[in-house]
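[step 3/7] fold_predict: job queued, chain A
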Amino acid sequence: MKKGIIFTPEIDIYAEIEKISQLFDLGMDYLILRKQDKELSYWYAYIEQFPFGYESKMLTYDFQLLHDLNLGGFVFESFTVNSLSEKDLSENIRLLRSQNKLSVLVVNDIESLIKYDTKFDLLIVGTSLWTPEIKKDMNCDVLEYIQKRDKLNSCISIKYSEDGAKYDNYVCAYDYTQFLWNQPNEAIEKFNNRRNGFIE
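[step 4/7] structure written:
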């Protein structure tokens, strides 16, 4: 079954917690906490609004938040990964796994995808693969790489679209972020349909 993922919107959205909770109730797998300008106090209050147990599905960019609230995983910044030696990066990932926490990285180019696809528990492609320009630029390279890699640990396009279903064999998950914040009711309906095996 394809996994589902969402990022918190970059700005506050009306009934945001309610919409995310609906997706959690339907089986959404991961929520990535992303609002660059928010203090830790904001996130403590934010997470407290969800029913107990959903924190294990939340992934954060902040180590303190990760451990204080026992969240599900840590999202590495690209500049952090690039500054670490291979040994130090492997040790960080090992420590996370020893605590049953996911290691996550968002990549934005084919070189990083190739380099890291076996290192992290969750590897997210930070570009939409389903665009009219799929035969151009990096999108084609990324898709071809995913097609060839039968055991890619996890690859997610950061945009759900109507064209995505035709590539189901090549990805492990979908991200509903933009779709959710632009068309929340339709996004929730489509996610529910996918979970029940109905692919548009």
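[step 5/7] annotate
The mean pLDDT is 83.
The chain is about 40% helix and 15% strand.
exit 0
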